[in-house]
Amino acid sequence: MDLFIILAVSYTLLSNSLLDLFFFGLFWICLSFFFSFYKVYRFTTIIRIISLLSKQISVFTLLIFTYYYIKGAFIDFKVIFLFYVLLLIIFNLWRIVLHSLFRKYRVVIGGDYNRVVILGKNSSTKRLELFFNNEPSYGYKYSGFFTDKNENNKLGSISESFDYVLEKNIDEIYCSIKELTNDQITKLIFFADNNLKTLKFIPDNKYIFSKKLKFENYNIIPILSLSEIPLKTGINKFTKRAFDIIFSLLVIIGILSWFTPLIALLIRLESKGPVFFKQLRYGADFNLFACYKFRSMMANKDSDSVQAAKNDMRITKMGKFIRRTSIDELPQFFNVLFGSMSVVGPRPLLLSHTNDYKNKINKFMVRHTVKPGITGLAQVSGYRGNIETDMDMQNRVKYDIFYVENWSWTLDFKIIIKTISNVLKGEEKAY
């Protein structure tokens, strides 16, 4: 179906040559292996599917553009852009509808499900049991649990699970590592391999296994290591920096070039002092940088240590407006252009807040492994504005760390769109 869509759109917009269409189909198939495009499972989220689509179609379009360039054939940029947009729309609609239909089919018809059992009984297995029972659209049919503990409603002991799995034609076995001995795990693996059953493990260390893990082989020795921060890898770092430069230049040339003199005049008419406000903040790798804003307060000695609060007497009338609309943040696009900030990332905090919380909140410093952003996941998730309690900071840091450890282009675009939406609607905590 995907190849049919590709060839139909290519034939309509690009070429009716069989050779060209052959290469286009070949490009799509090769990229599918490279990006693991068809590794979509019943537990794969819509966001993950859209992310895979975006990568695949973007690179696919670039390959076609390169193909025409190598051939020496002219292709109108408008046509290739229309091709790209059309593929994005068609594929997103097609895949989302298909994903939804499968989920509806599992709920209504009760088909396309996997029979599962759980070995062990503890808090982790209880959460998994609730997931199986409360989320029928994922297509799991929960049969029960086995444990050597004295528990009510169990199907039997661990050793009795083997016969049950074969008798009831169970598809997947989920076992809690902390309730099984090494000998039992060895027997389970042997049993699953020889009876073509899927065996999955529930880890006993929530902190370590909640992170992404990378599997490597040192000769024939298997090693599990914590995955690298996505934005520390070369290609991600390069493409994000390229995006930052292009995006910041568009804002600086398209908006700040004519908007800055107007805002500067309004700021100076109301109060004396500089148009721009400069404040030191900690950036990537905990390096200090000067963060720029349009001045929104009367000149005061507490600006570097005391965060703005609601109805703050230091804020000018013009300041209230530019803070409410986030206009005061626009000069930070110069920070982005010069490389000390990014368009999206953890918001840089006051030095006083950083010094207060870096030893109080676990993993606080992880947020400083990447460049700070003009907007961030915490800000679009409701954690913007004054930090009044330790819990405010803990929630903000939680979102920042999630962003750092799970960065993707899909997440960045989602944050940018949500930020624009929030600015247009106005935010309660924007003061």
TrEMBL record:
Q: Which UniProt keywords apply?
A: Membrane, Transferase, Transmembrane, Transmembrane helix
- Ranges for the Bacterial sugar transferase domain? 240-425
Main localization (coarse)? membrane
Q: Which parts of the chain span the membrane according to its record?
A: 21-40, 52-70, 76-97, 245-267
Q: Which GO terms describe its molecular function?
A: undecaprenyl-phosphate glucose phosphotransferase activity
Signal peptide span? none
Pfam families attached here? Bac_transf (PF02397), CoA_binding_3 (PF13727)
Q: How does it sit in the membrane?
A: Multi-pass membrane protein
Known EC number: 2.7.8.31
Write out the annotated subcellular location. Membrane
PANTHER family linked to this entry: COLANIC BIOSYNTHESIS UDP-GLUCOSE LIPID CARRIER TRANSFERASE (PTHR30576), UNDECAPRENYL-PHOSPHATE N-ACETYLGALACTOSAMINYL 1-PHOSPHATE TRANSFERASE-RELATED (PTHR30576:SF0)
User: Family assignment?
Assistant: Belongs to the bacterial sugar transferase family.
Q: What is this protein called?
A: Undecaprenyl-phosphate glucose phosphotransferase
